[in-house]
From TrEMBL, chains A, B:
All copies of domain PEP-utilising enzyme mobile, residue ranges: 418-499
InterPro entries: ATP_grasp_subdomain_1, PEP-util_enz_mobile_dom, PEP_util_AS, PEP_util_C, PEP_util_CS, Phosphohistidine_dom_sf, PPDK_AMP/ATP-bd, Pyruvate_phosphate_dikinase
PROSITE patterns named among the record's database cross-references: PEP_ENZYMES_2, PEP_ENZYMES_PHOS_SITE
Residues binding substrate, per UniProt: 557, 613, 740, 761-764
Residue span, Pyruvate phosphate dikinase AMP/ATP-binding domain: 59-290, 299-352
Organism: Vagococcus coleopterorum
Matching Pfam families: PEP-utilizers, PEP-utilizers_C, PPDK_N
Record family assignment: Belongs to the PEP-utilizing enzyme family.
Transmembrane regions listed in the UniProt entry: none
Annotated protein name in UniProt: Pyruvate, phosphate dikinase
Recorded GO MF terms: ATP binding; kinase activity; metal ion binding; pyruvate, phosphate dikinase activity
């Protein structure tokens, strides 16, 4: 037979499913012997039964009767008695905390008669009538949905005529107020039930119904809380903090929730009920002053706080009431805290022996670390700031600069020493130079994984994307949002976390070095199974990744090495020149550039592996589009400009993402990959000669067919072996491939025959698996997420059901051919904490992410390892 | 122990692997008791052993010795004897016929002494020395690779000085020629071996080596013949057709290889060897005249031909020699024939009881049928035609018309009654109206499955794509290839099979109705397991598909219904209008158009299923791009033109193929799909009311996620049920989905929950699996095919290793959820004969292809069924 009611003595802290969080905690505290006013909990299951059947379960009445009986006998009072009435509070409490979402009724059990008896009993008529008017107010609101305002207006009116505030009303005034409140009921066609038992029954139903009120429903949607959990109802004997000067109520945290500092933190009010603290009529006292005010109570409280923290192994948020010098604990729960505090608390609890390192690691959300590594605007700044527009917070940070609409203008202002914010409809690799020098990047189009977002995160530059309101007029050099227009050069502030763009300069707070994070990450590394690598485009990125203790570089892109102002000219010659010697000359220049780049990078990465990806972007990205550039290059190549223009048009692609890129370039322009291989091996030789044990890792992108790797690999090897022989040196090198097309996954057993390692490129893999591009999906992906067609953006969290199936298949097939094949992931989701345990599950060796995400990933891989162990146990 | 040598009496026709085609046939004829000069075959395995080890196997010499002994004893002659010498021919013969690729040596065994004996033996000194000089010539070429020319120059010189041709040289002149030939040997540092046995050994090695000569290697690559098969060597006693007027040689086909007509077809020469027939010095006689010339021989021959045809159940191509009135059979093989003849022969052989229907079906290549259904240029026309350019034969046919560079010009000329050829860099759906009225379509870019190619094949319009030489100047209205420029309006001829474009009008031959094809296809339908559906865009397509006996329509596209001149305006309003009523009004107009379209189509398809795909193309395809159109629509919608222009630019997509299309439109513009559902159900109701049992099949395109189908399906059902209720009628309807994205395959079990049928869209599936688009792959796919990176174009033949794995997975997962789920394929490869057996293997129910491919597919599915049965046995 289903049990609907649990006495606090019957439950425990594990029973959150049945009793809700509050009920379970009350039971747990009771079990621990803490001074909790007695009471009982009606289960969440009862709530769901009620909501489904539209009536309370039959046996509930009996069980409640029995529970009340127990309560009466414990307290020696009688529920509904005129002379010695038992009063109770009725509170909702679901499995997950839903602050402010549901309601509380205090003082339930009073009526026109018992209030008189209660006055006698407590010897305080004022107190008794005050309790009664509060009951009427809360009951009307919660049970009959009478707008709170109706009651408040009555209070206001009487305050005005009486010339005092409500807490100073005379007994007569309170009685008058009670009459007025009853009139409010009547006007709504309701009546306040005089029977205590009836009060309780309708209150229980009201709490159950509140589970489905719109506020609660919306909150659950936002927080991804299941709508089928239901709420429990906690019925507890009242204790009164408003029983005089030796009474009071307060809230205390076992540590500072803002900084994490140890020591109690909280406040209390003498002669008050909990709601008075919230209402803010009087200013509460700091908890430390309680030591002087009520030393014995303070001592007891402080012991209990420590007991609770030790019991829960977490910082506690506690509500207590003092009634005539007697302390009661009303609630305890794990306290909310800032990210900074969370980390400090976790680390210090380990030092105090309260937590193991493993427990501490599991208490921190990886995303907390990311926020802490970036500068933020001060709270004051944010409060005063004038918002201009809002997009997606694509790369965290708080940056200030002058708006520029293109890379040229950005460079110009930058050179004159001004900070700049690059604002574009969208960015492309040609904007790289402008992006590097910008404090922040803002784009009109694109999502969290657009080009701008990816590059910015890679470089730790603040970035806001998908700021769709921006109407950029590149000719007039202005940008307009609604009716606000600003000109190029205007100073703006960009919050890369919230995505808000402000006019003017907001005050900033710099992120300080946090030794607690360092400590935590050291512990993380100790338990991790997966290694964490960083992705890097430049020596600067690389240095950041190394600073953050990346175990290697999982993706060193070489694109930007072709996009520099001088370099792109040479690249264009390679593509467009008709004479072989012109091509060769251009390639030689590029070779020199690349060698220098790689030497610089190897000097930073030292003997940690660095996976260099051969050239990947679509051919057309290198080609000039404006006629001046075309004429210039035609001149250099001694070609006819209009003919060259035609040639360039001929290279136009309808879907560049699906076009002539990746290893397809390596097949049709083998000389480019051969040049890159030469640059890599020659720079490695240089460093080897200095005694640094470089092991070059060369990665072929966009393989869909073993034949591609099988054709390219020997050409690379030929170049490498030739250079090694010429330098009279031998060392290990590896040639691997990106696995970023569905077909590469499906045929990974064959692909593995021609390569030494795999690295998943989840961006392309996700694009192809779903058949939509990151750049173009913005127009419908938002729709999909809000309509619940998709649970999350597959570009920020791996799609386990689709993309993940292909990845799993590729790992299995690859290792079927080469059991020791080393496999990593270097796409955007490589650093996604939500994805990392999946990557561990399918057997990857490492994840690689943008440098600023390395610390986040280090924590996430540790958690994944710990969870795996837990599950395995 | 490996056996290297087989006497003709030991082998048989099944031993093509070991003995090669020629050797197996000689053995088979011998076994049948036909008059074959005795001989033996050295196996293909011996060849591979020789090529691998670079020397002949040890035991070979003994086995050859023994075989020669047998031959000597049979013929009572001695190999290498001076007085009574045995002469042999040495011929190569691999498993697959490689015409002209390898070499033959005749008269082997002669030397300076034995030629004297041979003269005495035959009583014909001239003949003997002629045989000897031929041996020297052939041996020098084959064994020592002495250029043939060296010998021919000597003959030429002597012919000039003698004043007669070689066959009239005197004995003295022949002897002189032999001396000259020996001088040629000497000059090359070679000597002609006088030992018959040595001649034979080096000849055998030479034949083996010829397997790897460049010609042979290239041919095998072209024909996809394995390089590891090796060639056999056939050594056979010589018979001499050049032994006088009662001797001769000839070639005869058992039926006419050009028309398929029954009755012998061939020619012969009196007093000649086979090579003389080829050399063309004398004109051969028709085979029928042999009946008068040598009645007995003719009668014997004709009996043998019938025997052979009956034995091989196929038309035979036979070589014979007559020596002193005695008939010898030297070779028989299945004769090459035209496609037309092949079909006639197969059908007539069934009627004659020589073949079963099943055997006949397996004898015809499906592609043969396609060629026969299209008009062709006459041979004379092709011979005289002046080629202008060449691309890919994308849709067969022979068409003539005036060049137009856009749809507007095409319409203009067409209205004035001129035939037109639409020539564009590439086509897009906006060109549809111009394409429909064109005789042929030619595009600069794109491959066999580009938009132009797909549409053209769908409509049976001749088409050449990827004609990369064309430099179209749209302003000057000219097109230039190399230095030849022609103007718009110039008459050209387009061969959609060869891909060649000719200047002017070539003579055409119309395809006639072929009752043999009809008969064959009727038999095909009897054995098929898979059904064949057609894809159709218009009522015209639909009618063609039905004429070709399609069992349904697997893909009725609705795009063109939105691209008509008036219609696209309304569609643009739906996308761009700001006012709901304008949108609604435009939708209502589109509804009326669509209803009329569907009624027309249902009237043709009748009760055969027709799968209508909801709107699919990227949004931007509907949007105007030139400013006039934008202004016009802005006016109609009372919008500001420059604002509208901005809005349109905002809808621009970087990769339209990966953008806002397919069911993504259905999610963001639900009203469009709802309108389509209404049009479909209302037109079906109209036809139902006329007593035609329409079962609407509605297909949702581009699903990547169950949620999409789950969101769209109930909306369609709501519209349908409302209309059915309003008409007070109930009938079955189905809602299915295209499976065309990798993720749909990977999650097919879930997708199946929300749909009634699947249809594979292999074009998109292939694009996404490989990560390249058909439109853009042209720049590298050719490279891939010629370099052997890919074995075939995955857009024309299904990629079993990649795309096929996904398809197989989708079928299994789909039927795991719904065991009876009906599944077809409607992408380009649906009609590919090479793909159909794979589709049968993975369990599809039907294939759907462009209407003109339906007959091809009908034959292919029959063959697939027959092969499956064979394999099963």
């Amino acid at each position: 037979m289903t049990k609907h009611v649990y006495d606090f003595l019957e439950g425990n802290g594990e029973m959150r499913d049945e009793l809700g969080g509050k009920g379970a905690n009350l039971a747990e505290m009771t079990k621990l012997g803490l001074p909790v006013p007695p009471g009982f909990t009606i289960t969440t299951g009862t709530c769901m039964a009620y909501l489904n059947d539209n009536r309370l379960p039959e046996r509930l009445k009996e069980e409640v009767d029995a529970a009340i009986k127990t309560l009466e006998s414990k307290l020696n009072k009688t529920f509904g008695s005129q002379d010695n009435c038992l009063l109770v509070s009725v509170r909702s409490g679901s499995k997950f905390s839903m602050p402010g979402m549901m309601d509380t009724i205090l003082n339930l059990g009073l009526n026109d008669q018992s209030v008189v008896g209660f006055a006698k009993l407590t010897g305080d008529e004022h107190f008794a009538y005050d309790c009664y008017r509060r009951l009427l107010q809360m009951f009307g609101d919660v049970v009959y949905s009478i707008p709170k305002q109706r009651f408040e207006l009555k209070i206001k009116a009487m305050e005005e005529s009486a010339g005092v505030l409500v807490d100073q009303f005379s007994i007569e005034q309170l009685k008058e107020l009670i009459v007025e409140f009853k009139a409010v009921y009547q006007k709504e066609g309701k009546e306040f039930p005089q029977s205590a038992r009836e009060q309780l029954d309708v209150a229980i139903e009201a709490v159950f119904r509140s589970w489905n009120n719109p506020r609660a429903f919306t909150y659950r949607n936002l927080q991804n809380i299941d709508h089928d959990l239901g709420t429990a109802v906690n019925i507890q004997a009242m204790v009164f903090g408003n029983s005089g000067e030796n009474s009071g109520t307060g809230v205390v945290f076992s540590r500072n929730p803002s900084t994490g500092e140890s020591g109690f933190f909280g406040e209390y009010l003498i002669n008050a009920q909990g709601e008075d603290v919230v209402a803010g009529i009087r200013t509460p006292e700091k908890i430390s002053t309680l030591e002087d005010a009520m030393p014995e109570v303070y001592q007891e409280l402080s012991g209990l706080i420590t007991t609770l923290e030790n019991h829960y192994h977490d910082m506690q948020d506690i509500e207590f009431t003092i009634e005539h010098n007697k302390l009661y604990m009303l609630q305890t729960r794990n306290g909310k805290r800032t990210d900074k505090a969370a980390i400090r608390i976790a680390v210090e609890m380990v030092e105090e022996g309260l937590l193991t390192k493993e427990e501490a690691l599991l208490k921190i959300q990886p995303s907390m670390i990311e926020t802490l590594l970036h500068a933020v605007f001060s709270e004051a700044g944010l409060k005063d700031g004038e918002a201009f527009s809002k997009g997606l917070g694509a790369s965290p940070g708080a940056s200030i600069g002058r708006v520029c609409f293109d890379a040229v203008k950005a460079a110009e202002l930058h050179q004159s020493g001004e900070p700049v914010v690059l604002m574009r409809n969208e960015t492309s690799p040609e904007d790289i130079e402008g992006m590097i020098i910008s404090e922040a990047i803002v784009t009109n189009h694109g999502g969290m994984t657009s080009h701008a977002a990816v590059v910015a995160r890679g470089m730790g530059i603040c970035c806001v994307t998908g700021c769709e309101q921006l109407a950029i007029d590149e000719e007039a050099r202005t940008v307009t949002v609604n009716d606000v227009m600003i000109e190029e050069g205007t100073m703006i502030s960009v919050d890369g976390t919230s995505g808000v763009i402000y006019l003017g300069e907001l005050e900033k707070v710099l992120a300080e070095e946090d030794h607690n994070i360092k400590t935590l990450l050291t512990w993380a590394d100790e338990v991790a199974n997966l290694q964490v690598y960083g992705n890097a485009e430049t020596a600067r990125d690389l240095a950041v990744a190394m600073d953050f203790n990346a175990q290697g570089i999982g993706l060193a892109r070489t694109e930007h090495m072709f996009f520099g102002k001088e370099r792109i000219k040479e690249m264009r010659k390679v593509i467009l020149a008709e004479q072989d010697d012109e091509k060769r000359e251009a390639l030689n220049k590029l070779l020199a550039y690349q060698k220098a780049d790689f030497e610089e990078m190897y000097a930073i990465s030292q003997d940690k592996p660095m996976v260099i990806r051969l050239l990947d972007p679509p051919l057309h990205e290198f080609l000039p589009t404006n006629i001046n550039e075309i004429e210039e290059i035609a001149k250099e190549l001694k070609m006819n400009a209009s003919r060259l223009n035609k040639q360039i048009k001929g290279l136009h692609e309808t879907n560049p993402m699906l076009g002539h890129r990746g290893c397809r370039l390596g097949i049709t322009f083998p000389e480019i990959y051969e040049m890159q291989a030469q640059a890599i091996i020659e720079s490695a030789i240089t460093l080897r000669q200095k005694g640094i044990a470089i092991v070059p890792h060369i990665m072929i992108p966009l393989v869909s067919e073993q034949g591609e790797a099988a054709m390219i690999r020997p050409k690379l090897i030929a170049v490498i072996e030739e250079k090694l022989a010429a330098a009279n040196i031998q060392f290990e090198y590896q040639i691997g491939t990106m696995i970023e097309l569905p077909r590469a996954c499906l045929t990974a057993d064959k692909v593995a025959e021609s390569v030494d390692f795999f690295s998943f490129g989840t961006n392309d893999l996700t694009q192809m698996t779903y058949g939509f591009s990151r750049d173009d999906a913005g127009k419908f992906l938002g729709h999909y997420l809000t309509d619940g067609i998709m649970a999350h953006d597959p570009f920020t969290q791996v799609d386990e059901d689709g993309v993940g199936v292909l990845m799993d298949m590729a790992v299995k097939k690859g290792r079927q051919t080469k059991p020791d094949l080393r496999i990593g992931v270097c796409g955007e989701v490589g650093g996604s904490p939500e994805s990392i345990s999946f990557f561990e599950k399918i057997g990857l060796d490492y994840v690689s992410c943008s440098p600023y995400r390395v610390p986040v990933a280090r924590l996430a891989v540790a958690q994944s390892a710990l969870n795996k162990t837990h599950i395995a146990q």
